[in-house]
Automatic annotation (TrEMBL):
Keyword DNA-binding: yes
Statement: the UniProt record of this protein carries the keyword Cell membrane: no
Stored PROSITE patterns: HTH_ARAC_FAMILY_1, HTH_ARAC_FAMILY_2
Coiled-coil segments: none
This protein's name: HTH araC/xylS-type domain-containing protein
Naturally occurring in which organism (per UniProt): Brevibacillus choshinensis
Amino acid sequence: MGIYMEKAAHDWTNDSVRIIATPSLVAKSTYFYVQEVGHFRTLPTYFTERQHLNSFLVVYTLAGKGYLRYRNHEYELRPHHVFFIDCHNYQFYNTDKNDLWEMAWVHFNGSSSRGYYEQFLKNGSPVISVDDNSPIPVIIDQLLEANRQNDVRTEPLSSKYLVDILTELLLATSPPQAAEAFLPAHIQKIISDLDKRFQEKISLDQLASQHAISKYHLLRECKKYTGYTPNEYLIHRRITYAKELLTYSDLTIAAIAHQTGVDNVSHFINLFKQRAEMTPLAYRKKWQRIT
């Protein structure tokens, strides 16, 4: 785990804001929760050096210039730059003495914070540049206001705002084409083909040949834009259809396996259990009672 270490020069203006929160047991077990949130206008000696803190940190640069040292790399932070780090790792950040750094920030934890962090880091850097009209600084202001009030709504609202920030960060690391057209035309055609033919046996070689694309490029492109390889997408589509049949039909498990394109019943049951966290029969008993 490591021993907590922090050195800092708390050098910021009198109108800077820092709110420390003490999350409830409910928040810790259920929500994303704020540990600290603030808006700093730094003064020339401002810095923080830290390691082994059980927290995640998002910092948005509003004005001026800052610097971040993290995971053996150094980054310059300018307006509209955001960094998202795991504070267990060593970090050092400070202001430029000639162009004083202004930032909005939040320390948080809980729920699936680490999962979001790991997804974000797949873009290769803890620092990204977002659009001038990004809602992230506004959402941090909303977090500040919610935690100033400190009433029964504060923790669920804080969790909502943190999810909004994390969602914006993940969307900002999506491929540019995805923001414009969701899926490029050639990927749309492939996904449409898989949706129509998911009950058939489809090999990667066949799919690549039919769409005149190299199978290696096909793998990369599908994963990049859909989050699935073609085979994973087929399985996802088959399991979704199986859920529909289990809920709204009286077909046997073997017949449903066949209908979804999986000939081996044991294999179908294993695939279903891995993704639905219960057997097909348990799923049927649960959801047929509900519906």
